[in-house]
Protein 1
Amino acid sequence: MTNNAKNILVLHGPNLNKLGQREPDVYGTETLDSINSQIQDFGKSNNCKIDIFQSNHEGELVDKIQNANSHDAIIINPAAYTHTSVAIRDAISSISTPVIEVHLSNIHAREEFRHKSLSAPVCKGQISGFGGYGYILALNSVVHI
Ligand code: DQA
């Protein structure tokens, strides 16, 4: 890898391990494994080293955010914690690494409780509504912006 190689952390929040089986009318039929292999393919073609982690536990996601010093950027889908977690928001605020928030569904077009993201205001930006391709859009923003 050359000097300008990027080191990126992708975090998937709760229930995203169930993609493919979970509410396919909302989230589609693509599995998390399939999304992750597209993320890794992007990394190989774009000189990025990408670490991927999924957890159903808020504190584990907080630990990963706090310990991301060696990463150039974090891409996170906090899933349901988007709407509830002051802890994840505060962890994002506590680091200088840029964070991009991704949602598979368009959270603004769904139930009202999903319209509010506690984390988006402390992120560089939010991508919502493009399914698994949202992660590729976020990776492109890290590489090109
Ligand atoms: C989600 C949207 C959240 O509201 C929901 O709780 C999820 C997935 C998405 O990717 O569309 O679990 O983050």
Protein 2
Amino acid sequence: MFMLQKGSVTVGGVNLENHLILAAGVLGTTGASLARMLRLGAGGVVTKSIGPQPKSGHAGPCLIPLEGGLLNAMGLPNPSRDFVNEVTPLKDRPVIVSIFGGMPEEFREVASWFEGIAAGYELNLSCPHAEGYGASIGSDPGVVRACTEEVAAFGLPTWVKLTPNVTDIGVIGRAAEEGGATAIVAVNTVRAMRISINLRRPVLGNRFGGLSGKMIFPIALRCVYDLYDACSIPIIGCGGISSAEDVIEMMMAGASAVQIGSAVCDDIGIFERIGEALYADDGSPAGEIVGCAHA
Ligand code: SIN
């Protein structure tokens, strides 16, 4: 297999210790758990999404393990501004703060709390089960552009995480790029549901939620491939990655780095495990393969 050169990399303006980033929502609710994932080999970490007001999230059940995936409807629970205390000790580390809001001004307000602390921002315009937030506004290119402009104005790296639940993800990627995004993260979870045949009711408290894990890898890969053709800023692949081979495949589709989320729930040591199979002292620069499947 193609092996990558060891060492730090810069992706979308953020200096990372390697190409493997902890995705938003998994072990990202405290400074201690974020620091632990960096110790365990993550090249960078993204926090749980933080919004303009504290939120307790959807009624349970909120998380269902499936064969080859996870179905969640957490409902964006977060402590809002109090989260600043968690990430302040990690200033100068590769910590990207995920933020959400219902309108551009709310994105700006939340971003302002983390100025001088975060290594960059990731805009959650993609949660598929939060009315008024996430994908419900992130499917409109005009809103994506406006939210991105507000946050990019701080001059820090600004990543925008997109939903796969749209007809043409390239249109949304271009809107983020026009708004000043420094990278696109593709993708958030796929809107989905299960029904209990005994209870005759949807299993999730919120009825529907977002599907992640191995089952969505081909969808995420196709989105990265489409975005590579549509946009010129770096793309960070996210969705079902659990092996070094998956990382290489994502890079061949066009990803400059990847995020790993659901696979961490099965293996807390996944960053080290993938890193051992992916990197070699005499490995090659990622640039040799990023987007090569488009030739
Ligand atoms: C959640 O907290 O509801 C999940 C976040 C997301 O899907 O973006």
Protein 3
Amino acid sequence: MALAMTDCAFTSVGSVITVEKRDSAVDFVCKHGRVRVTVLADGIVRVRATRATELGPDFSYAVARKRWPKTPVRITAGIIRTRKLVISITKSPLRIAFATLDGTVLNRDNGRGMGWEGAKCRSHRWRARDEMFFGCGESAGPLNKRGSTTTFWNTDDPNHTYATEALYISIPFLISTRPGAHYGIFWDNTHRTRFNLAQVEDEKQYVLESDAGEIDYYFFAGDSIREVVRGYTELTGRMWMPPRWALGYQQSRWSYMSTDEIMDIARSFRERKIPCDAIYCDIDYMDGYRVFTWNPKTFPKPRAMTDGLRKIGFKLVTIIDPGVKNDNGYSVCRDGKKKGMFLENAVGGWFTGTVWPGECLFPDFTNPRVRAWWGLWHKELLDLGVAGIWNDMNEPAVWNHPGGTMPLDIPHEYDGQHVTHARAHNVYGFNMARACHEALRKLRRDERPFVITRAAYAGIQRYSMVWTGDNQSLWEQFAVSIPECLNLSLSGVPFCGADVGGFGRDCTGELLARWTQAGAFFPFFRNHTAVGTRQQEPWAFGMEIEDICRAYIRLRYRLLPYLYNLFREAALDGTPIMRPLFWEFPDDPHGYAIDDQFLLGPSLLIAPIVKPGATARAVYLPEDQWYDYWTKQHFKGGQYIAASAPLDRMPLFVRAGSILPMTKPIEHTGQKTEAIILDVYPGPKTAGYLYEDDGATFDYKRSRYSLTRFEWADGKLRIGKRKAGYQSAAKLYRVLVAGREVRS
Ligand code: MIG
């Protein structure tokens, strides 16, 4: 439908009439609007454009950092210069170009440039011949986004495919890379937005557009993709350390129907010696789907249940949906109505829509007063010992209205901006998760919150982790979860995962085995399945599959110290936990096309088996030295190898020069380990480190953490100077070399 973008009605901002210089900003008053260029940092520039005479209020949910240290800027005729960027402005018509100091043009306005068509705002941008695109938030499509279109409009689509343009989460952040030129664009507009990176008019351009609003984008220039992502997460914020238990394996289904079933499942994990940290209550724990209630028959004593779970090392996570049943006999509804917490129709009167509980009212999460009110309802859940909250249906999904969501004219408070749903839609789920996060922070002052959300907008990492919504038990959906989570990770959300085993349809033993093998290396590792599908727990397919699942879940637990290091890195500067090959090997061109392998941190290369019946696969080893984790065979990188993969083996490689901190297998993260095992994979230079904290509180922010560096040289381990702010439970180090015990 590329032709639907007609030329006729497009109005470009036009020529510059006057230039107004400000502190680190310059305003260009143009024939058809005003454009403001603001330098935030040497490599970060903000561009705003309006067709009105003045820019509107400066408001964003995504942006965490509002103040930036003053950056020296030189402004001369048509050129703004920072220590990293040269921004040149052509005046008639106005065109902005971003170049590096050595003159390489990173990106620029192209063709018709910036402007408007009807209510839409749009930017036509130049596309280089060899430019590749990544990020763009959540998409069940290719890793490299060149040639595809992403629509940012939070959508509940349980039948999505590789070609689906709009999913649950909207993160309009584009990463561009080509040899020697890297940049990012965060297009901060919460209206329905499209990144058309397919063929627009010709190969030489791409188009970013939103249904309404101002143009407001941030340009990130970096010497690498790493620097671009660091800049983006500096602007939109970084995740906090989650509680350590959230790194463990988690079990869910829609739904475990009673306390007895929950306890049975939990006990089965212990009996079968399959490690697990958390179990989920999906919607059927509630009384008629009324949020913040319990079904008195099937879940009569929730406190006793969470106590029982805690005794065997399990946390409980409960689902909370946004729709509040319209029932005056129900306290949340009554109280919310009395206090005016729910959305109203454009003409007044409550807005109602149908979801699980039947006719529902919807809190206006864009109102700070509503967020605080909603938050307090979580108190009882927490008092009952619930450990984490799962926010679902918050696109929002509303079944009885066109488009499966609210009408676009529903008014929202939007933190004082007073807008309609058209602008609030993409931040509805964001603000629901935020309300939950803020409540958990308030109610459990020094405990790290665990919030998982399905819908989100840019910056969600400050409040919640995400999963990829309703996938299906299909090989192709398993395969696509790799590029999907890689791009989410590059879009500022390192803590993410997909339903292991697949949500819709019946899983098979082989698929569960392969998916569990791979899922063990995703940041979030949860098995979940839909109502009406067959049992999908690790033991649901007989002994062989159970043994395989157990082995890989155990491997996950053995690797927890290494994984925890990576969570720490993500919390510090937004570095993805799960990484595309090009993150570590930017000069190796192969990595940009590989979407069926990934790296967990710098050291582990994972090559999942994503095809039924496969017993071998080609694995690309990037330019370096590698060890096969299973056979310890040594390989030179920069080549494809054939890796054997019988059902119980997923190809896994360790980069030479790594020291992997590990533990002996434990059954849940509450168990203490007496030793940290350092598994050394010698290379020309061999080093590693271990980050430790209490795994539960914010003490780590008060410097109560430990950091120990290790080096391996001449057959000996050297322990570096230790930052010892946290007293580790592990008392000793055991050294292995490529998995073999050595004397040291
Ligand atoms: O309309 O709560 O994505 O994980 O099990 C379906 C029931 C609602 C969708 C979620 C899924 C969850 C299910 N929910």
Protein 4
Amino acid sequence: MAKKSILQQQRAAYQPKLPAVLWGPVKAVLGKPTESVADHEAIKRLFPVTYGLPELTFVKADEPVEQPAAINVGVILSGGQAPGGHNVISGLFDGLKALNPDNRLYGFLMGPGGLVNHNYVELTGDVIDEYRNTGGFDIIGSGRTKLETVEQFDKGLEILKKLGITALVIIGGDDSNTNAALLADYYERNNTGVRVIGCPKTIDGDLKNEQIETSFGFDTATKVYSEVIGNIERDCNSAKKYWHFIKLMGRSASHIALECALQTQPNYCIISEEVEAKQMSLEQVVDGIAEVVAERGNRGLNYGVVLIPEGLIEFVPEIKSLIKELNEFLGVEENKAAIADMTPEQQREFVLAGLTAAALATLHKLPDNVANQLLLDRDPHGNVQVSLIETEKLLSTMVGARLAKMKEHKKYKGSFAALHHFFGYEGRCADPSNFDADYCYALGYNAAQLINCGVTGYMSSVRGLTKPSSEWVAGGIPITMMMNVERRNAQDKPVIRKALVDLEGKPFKVFASKRDEWARETAYLYPGPIQYFGPSEVCDLPSRTLWYEQN
Ligand code: FBP
């Protein structure tokens, strides 16, 4: 058994807080039939059995409840790690055992691939106890295998039948929950007797909507990044000689960058969604930063902090069109087959030959490493792997060149030295904050109740998250309700609509009202490390984003 740190030993004893409604037996209250967020007819066709299901809310059962027959349940962790995944599993385990001590839980290994390839382990009490309140997904591992073909569904069904599993919980982001919905509908319309429940996971914070207030992991990851950004700000304010360009994970949406800006008050923070809304070119983005650097430099302040969301490049309109064109081209089956056996150099030539003049012009403006990543690197869901693109270096180089020009024109007299950072992996496996520990445990415990109700195609939902946890509302949301049709890999696909930063929303408005002051002044805030022990106003603090959205 691995040795535990002193904090880990103390933290193992933490008992996550559950909503009061889940403290005993529950009764499901069903709402009205639902509709998808858009493309109703198309989504209905694709999900003939699970489309239109009602929202479900749990209330306390008013009569004694008989113990249900024992069942076996499977669980999968899908996609990028997010703090709190282990607590979803421990909540699910405890919820199942509370329903019937003979219930059993199996974990499929290394993501959805474990289901297809029949790799699994039984999760017993001893195993679960080792992982309570810890970060990481190492209890069963995670992976990005996309579950969407009938062959995969049938292969999965073989092992589910063999293990007597009648419910599967998929813990994942928007793409993984989309796959969970496909699987749910397929198993239901084929009368397999297997139900599927999703759980909202991703540090990116982009799996949220009117029903799902936040995805788990966002709170902890942003607290970790904000701690380190605060430390860098303090270093910066002490040495007074560097500009720090900090790229922050978060894939497409800028929720993480915005949250960290609200927590640390840097000199500059780019919000990709604003760049797109204002149709800004890369040069204009660079000009925005250079102006702040020059204004401070001219007052002798040759230091500062710039936050950059990792997905920025995809939101610059000309680059967005380029990526769209590339995705269409790379999504065509003949093109996929043609490049399969080519060397990287041949692939590059082949793709370049298929692009329009406008796309080629944009591509030629970019450094080779960025161009190559846009050209060929995609994850299994067809997304550009933005975490691999060094936007922070691209921007600081362009800012340096812009400042040199300003100096020639006597508009800048400071000095500019840049340092680069990328925070992403540093926060994805941190021990969950109290908020995430409680939220995740509740999501898992609640998933057990959804299974017990016999529903399928639902996402576990816990709401009212800025209130004390005892008042949280628990229930289930039909996954099809969050869906629309989007273009992916040259095909129209049903997907959960991604939540981008709302430029009319309060978190952005608060940021926008303060940023000029933060650019000029040195107004840094140092949030410090996540606190697990101490006063509730420090330990149970929700993210600023969630707070502003709800208050
Ligand atoms: P999910 O969407 O699966 O939660 O992953 C989030 C994320 O951390 C993104 O922020 C990042 O772009 C991506 O994963 C990195 O992927 P990988 O872990 O495969 O390098």
